[in-house]
Automatic annotation (TrEMBL), chain A:
One of its GO terms (cellular component) is plasma membrane. Belongs to the binding-protein-dependent transport system permease family. The chain crosses the membrane at residues 12-33, 76-95, 102-119, 139-159, 197-223, 243-265. This is Carbohydrate ABC transporter permease. Keywords: Cell membrane, Membrane, Transmembrane, Transmembrane helix, Transport. Gene3D superfamilies: MetI-like. GO terms for biological process: transmembrane transport. SUPFAM superfamilies: MetI-like. CDD domains: TM_PBP2 (cd06261). Residues 72-265 form the ABC transmembrane type-1 domain. Its main location: membrane. It is a multi-pass membrane protein. It holds the Pfam family BPD_transp_1.
Automatic annotation (TrEMBL), chains B, C:
It comes from Mesobaculum littorinae. One of its GO terms (molecular function) is ABC-type maltose transporter activity. GO terms for cellular component: ATP-binding cassette (ABC) transporter complex, substrate-binding subunit-containing; maltose transport complex. This is sn-glycerol-3-phosphate ABC transporter ATP-binding protein UgpC. Residues 4-234 form the ABC transporter domain. It holds the Pfam family ABC_tran. Belongs to the ABC transporter superfamily. The gene is ugpC. Keywords: ATP-binding, Nucleotide-binding, Transport. The lineage of its organism: Bacteria, Pseudomonadati, Pseudomonadota, Alphaproteobacteria, Rhodobacterales.
Automatic annotation (TrEMBL), chain D:
It comes from Mesobaculum littorinae. Belongs to the binding-protein-dependent transport system permease family. Gene3D superfamilies: MetI-like. One of its GO terms (biological process) is transmembrane transport. Pfam families: BPD_transp_1. This is Sugar ABC transporter permease. The lineage of its organism: Bacteria, Pseudomonadati, Pseudomonadota, Alphaproteobacteria, Rhodobacterales. The keyword Transmembrane helix applies. The chain crosses the membrane at residues 30-56, 92-114, 121-141, 173-198, 219-244, 282-303.
Amino acid sequence: MSQPQLATVKRICWMLSLVVVAIPFLFPFLWMISSGFKGPTEIFGEPSLIPRTWRWQNFVEVFEYQPFARQYFNSIYIACAVTVLTLLLSSLAGYALARMRFAGAALLMLFLMSALMVPEEVTIVPNFFLMKWLGVMDTHVPLILLPVFGPHGVMATFLMRQYFVALPKELEDAGKMDGLSRAGIWWKIALPMSRPALAAVAIITFLFSWNLFLEPLVFISSLENFTLPLALSNFTDPYGAPLWHLQLAATSLAVVPILIVYLIAQRQIIESFAMSGVKG
Amino acid sequence: MTRLTVRNLTKSFGKLEVIRGIDLDVADGEFVVFVGPSGCGKSTLLRMISGLETISGGELWIGDRKVNEVQAAKRGLAMVFQSYALYPHLTVRQNMGFGLKVRKESVDEIERRVNEAARTLQLDKLLDRYPRELSGGQRQRVAIGRAIVGDPQVFLFDEPLSNLDAELRVHMRAEIAALHRRLGNTTIYVTHDQIEAMTLADRIVVLRDGRIEQVGTPKELYARPDNVFVAQFIGSPKMNVCPVEAIRSPLQRAGFSTGGATQAGLRPEHLRIVDEAEGILCGRVSISEYTGGGSLLHVEIEGAPVFLVENSGDDTPQPGDIVHLAFSASDLHLFDAEGRACDREPELA
Amino acid sequence: MTRLTVRNLTKSFGKLEVIRGIDLDVADGEFVVFVGPSGCGKSTLLRMISGLETISGGELWIGDRKVNEVQAAKRGLAMVFQSYALYPHLTVRQNMGFGLKVRKESVDEIERRVNEAARTLQLDKLLDRYPRELSGGQRQRVAIGRAIVGDPQVFLFDEPLSNLDAELRVHMRAEIAALHRRLGNTTIYVTHDQIEAMTLADRIVVLRDGRIEQVGTPKELYARPDNVFVAQFIGSPKMNVCPVEAIRSPLQRAGFSTGGATQAGLRPEHLRIVDEAEGILCGRVSISEYTGGGSLLHVEIEGAPVFLVENSGDDTPQPGDIVHLAFSASDLHLFDAEGRACDREPELA
Amino acid sequence: MASLNEPGTTVRAPRAPWLTLKRRETIEGWLFVSPTLIGFLIFFLGPLIAVVFYSLSEWNLLSQDTIFVGLANYEDALTQNPDFWQVIRNSVIFAAGLVPMNMALALALAMALARPFRGVVFFRTIFFAPVVTSAVAWAIVWKFLLQGDAGAVNQMLATVGIDGPNWLREPNWAMAAVIVTRVLKMVGLNMILYIAALQSIPRDYEEAARLEGASEWQIFRMVIWPLLAPTTLIIMVITTIGSFKVFDHIYLMTGGGPENGTLVLAFYIYQQAFEFFEIGYASALAMIMFVIVLALTVVQLILRQKGST
Amino acid sequence: QELRFTVWTGNDAHLAMLNGIAEGFRESHPDVTVRFETIPAGDYTQKLTFQIAGGNPPDLGWMFEDSIPAFIAAGVVEDIGPALRETEGYDLDDFSGPAMDLWSDGDAVYGIPFSTSPFMVFYNKEMFEAAGLKDPLAMAEAGEWTMEAFRDAALKLTEANDAWGFEFKDGEGYDSRIMHAIMPPIRAYGGHAWQDGECGFDDPEAVEAVTMLHGMIFEDQSIVPPGEQGDFFSGSAAMTVNQISRASKMPEAGFEWGIAPLPTGPAGAAPIIGQAGISVFAQGDKKELATEFAAFMTNAENVAVMAQFFPPARASVLDSDAFIDANELIPAEQMAYVSDAIKQGSVLPSHENAPKILAAMKPRFDALFRADADVPATLAAVCAAIQDEL
Ligand SMILES: Nc1ncnc2c1ncn2[C@@H]1O[C@H](COP(=O)(O)OP(=O)(O)OP(=O)(O)O)[C@@H](O)[C@H]1O
Ligand SMILES: Nc1ncnc2c1ncn2[C@@H]1O[C@H](COP(=O)(O)OP(=O)(O)OP(=O)(O)O)[C@@H](O)[C@H]1O
Ligand SMILES: [Mg+2]
Ligand SMILES: [Mg+2]
């Protein structure tokens, strides 16, 4: 075989093996979406990827069973709020830690970093009482505050700091010479220049909030305040038995838009991860 | 009144003392260049003047205002950075107008001054481009434009040309010189390229390790360096320095007195290849580098380190050839054991 | 047998043709330098020779072996990268021994050859350091050391000195030359610095846009460039080129024939400042840059672009002065409308 | 005007103002970090300290009775409760299974997908997609796919003649199943991090090695892998901490069963706190978890220190 | 004023009925509205606890049978006994004795059951015919519907149909419904789960009952085994056990079906009921009003209304023809069995430490439901595991 032919054969084998590895990643999505169209009885029948009868009303029932649209909206707006707040605070603090020489900065950094080692499970109980004391049980306030200020927020701060440290300093010096205040430099120079890092932090933060499960489980009790992860595990009949067809239809509804957004933005997402300090 | 006065200025980063007491007076309109090897504190000193770096000790006066604790933007200076530091998300026009906008100048005024500066620098056609759409030289010019719109009393440049290629560097160097002649602002310019320093400066400040080694006009530094460091730093290729001991007998034979000097220096361009009769020093060519206009010879002289010799004649010696070198008394630099230049009576007299 | 033969070599990246048919013969032991402006394809050509880049068309022979489809490692060459590409996690010793180790040489043999190379390059004391603990020049030397331990037939260098500062560059350049003289391997060296090319090369290959503009010894290129491009590319500061029209009358007055030439070129170092009587060209100094040994004048000649003039005399004209310039006939370069050099009968005769 | 020649003595020389540039910077710095810092103190550090106190008491959430019991909770966990050690064992097995598998797969995928080729985007997307999918959805679907004989996985295995186990019903298989499905869910993130790291390694290294005759494997083993060490360490720390935090996945897939085979620490804490309402005991467990994670992280960081010198 | 009332149903028909009752209450209390808050059943107790501990308790709520003892023990549910006795026309004694057992302690009443639903066998008539078996209802009438008959039927059903013979309640018999799976046979064999702080799982009766179940699962393979799906309602199993509210699922199923009582065992009939009650929370600030509403909701009239979904515990309603005929899905002769079961049935075992007991039991039962399990030993292990909590 000549070199080019050999290369082609190699390429084909290579692609095939990638495809095989991809199956367990891809199949659940296909199966989930297809099952979302099946009736409650068909799900348990002979498995097949294509539903025998397409049960479109699953997707109607999802919204009738519980205030799913409302819950969907809750998840979106909470995730947005968490993302915006996290970006704001983490970039502020990250900027200061990276760029400003102030007494105690190094110590503060260490101090904050210690949070990365503490799982949320550890502090959830006292936070529960804190939220009770603040009178914000069964509201979305804890779901916004805890991610922003908890370990995840610290992680975001750290990532932003890493990125700012690597940014050329001269632009900021130029801003200083131009008469910008610190806040001005941060807002007008540092932030516009750190789009990749902001994007990366925004993505992880959004996902983090979007997928949050323990906190809503603990802090939210009324249906209309549910977020998606809770709602998804809540398609049960009044006695607690799961309504699989609805659950899977709802799961598809929850996952597909995110996947589409991801597909559209995937190049930027990977780039921003690559360009930001996420790599450590 | 844009004299600049520096008194015993010091700067420490933590325990590391980087600027160790600098005294300097820059006259109104003067073009002063800081040179020195990498890490000697040039940028730090400049940044202390600009206000970007705090001052650990000493005093800094701009005009008759002590500015130690004055914010950068309020010192009335403008700075051009090595990387140009153009805001990538703003157009050229916005970049140049940024400082004025921050200072809340009226839109008309900003427009007027940006246009004026753009005309001065021939940037008119580029005003609506983004920095990434500019060539290196154009960026450099925008960076200067941004500095001049603010009408600063003092210009600061930190290695503004080091990101350009050799050709462009020569060109922009001339432009900066022309600009200074036109505007006449007091200017402080940092570079590690001594050719740049020589060609631009009214006075050169040679820094080393946070201290000033010598201050003077380019000619003074070239002709009468205060010490070995300056002697070797100024001029290219650098001055050949060897222990007097190694060449004492040839020198004596030629009638040069060496006094108490322990080191002797000779610039490559001052060494002439001559006949054996006229020759003072004699050595073997180890390498001969053709440079077009001439060639650069590496000459091994017994007992001394390799001497570089610039030969502009067409009859280039080949490696292995024995050559004889001559120089005039005024081109011989003598230094004492500490590297300080020895007084040369012949010239003082 | 380490001749290198390149026949009509081409390379395309997708639709972009980067190397457009190169023919070249490199003799055994020859030191050939590729120069050319950035992006002209120097690195690509070198990488095609090394085997790191596939060959789109044409033939490549090393010795009498056609190596188009031979793996990089089996072509018997070694390469020194611009970034040195020293493995940061390995000591100098391990870096140098890496190639031998992957080729499963015995531990003793590796030890022996690494030590030998280290001695050649004076790296003995650094063998147990990590690359990050070395200075730029030392790293450079290790990179070369890594190349020579494999005892390659051909050395390839891709801008090996461009990360060093000016001083060190001069020094390392000499070292590379010395090494080549000692080892005598066929060497191909890429640089965009024409001084480096001039001083190192047996022959220089000037590339432009994927094509060879001229091949020749440094002297040939300097003295008899084939075209304007080469003329301006070789030599520093670059050759002054102006339309013949602009200086026709002075030339005629001086008795120089211009034939059918449309452009004339004069090197700054070939222009002499003379009395009005001897002067061929006359202009006003706009800038005078002091460079220590001499000065570089920017001379405005009416109707022509600014001429650079190198003046090594001590009596430097000041800006504003009127100067008269002379040059010898052999230093006048004439080019036709396409930029090709016109034959100069006087010299051929 | 004479005074102008001696700036040090001019009458206009002001005394150094209180608000020196340095002080200003410090004040601004603290202002910048204060929102984060205050939030951190209130919602993180405060609670963390509270946990220490809670852990010293016996406290039932429903009845709100609090009794100070000293170290009894710890004693109970460490010496009395047989479940505790099983939980620790499970957590360790979970981490020990998940971390290497995750990292090996992430690295393999990254190596395959770091350089562009036709279809690279497609594959990167597929491998990253589970990361953006909610853990709940992922767990629910896999729970379904992993049913005994009727599940899609076993059906598929059956077509190639393998009689798959009853995945979620046998303790060892259940552990394997939660680990693997968790790896599938999260490996994309590490893959991206590795891709980013690989892309930041100059190609020169690889090419230099290739020129010297190294095989692909040698290039990986002797050049790429050592250069990836810092990234590997970060990923290892993050993944290890993450593996101790896994809660939702297990809650939804196995509920800790069968036979407590997948009962891990995070879930156990949750169970004690929010199913049995034993706040004190749960807090003691949380402290233990904190210490474990802290110790692991410190060990890993020390290894890094050692590795880099 | 507004009363918050937590429920676990999100079913529109249920909520409509509840709102109707609330509307009725407004006749006497025009300024009172009642807001029914749905908390999903799965997390109900937990969320309710959070609300109480979080200082935001509802005024009233539905309570599960398995969580009420803990709530009583913690003192968070109000004793409404005195108030009910004083309420005019409210006949507390009308509630059947066994039904009230769980909800009262002496004179104190901590809740009123609104749903007392017996577990019945649902069966697929078509599959019984295909297996040539006698209808379970007929067997029951003939007194032949014993555990042996049940096991035998399950086996034959499995052989005759492409389906399992029997499915535990909702297919969750190995997970959240362990007690529903094992208690009917244990009781039928004369055993018990625990009594007076003593574990009963390792008594011979219980062992025998569980051994039978184990045999059905792994020897006969007539019960849907762990990890498999064999949904009765989609025709994959011939019999299941469930409460009558599940009859609402049957019209979709598309096969002939019926309900029969639980099979009898050596100890005779042992009907089992599941219960849910209404409690008033002690921390609420409108306890009196809440109590009044609880009384209103569980008076004879409203219990009859609720009977359409929730089998009542009031003897007067149970005996009424209205109740027997109320369920349009279930024929009257089958409803009679339901009625009987309610009156004679006993509630599933409960305990104030129920969550911990169940959690402690669960892993040991996981071990039980394996083909090679040693039943007596495993049950002994169950007892050992839960003894501390009893
Ligand atoms: N922010 C800082 N913290 C600590 N040390 C610093 C800092 N900035 C500079 N230094 C140190 O101060 C010394 C002088 O640095 P400076 O940048 O002024 O040198 P330079 O003369 O500008 O060199 P170059 O020619 O390389 O730009 C160096 O040793 C440098 O390491
Ligand atoms: N992998 C590649 N894919 C596409 N185009 C490439 C690739 N490598 C090089 N090129 C293009 O080929 C041309 C020649 O590149 P090359 O690196 O050989 O230039 P060079 O002469 O070495 O320049 P420099 O002096 O800047 O190193 C450039 O236009 C470059 O953009
Ligand atoms: Mg500097
Ligand atoms: Mg190149």
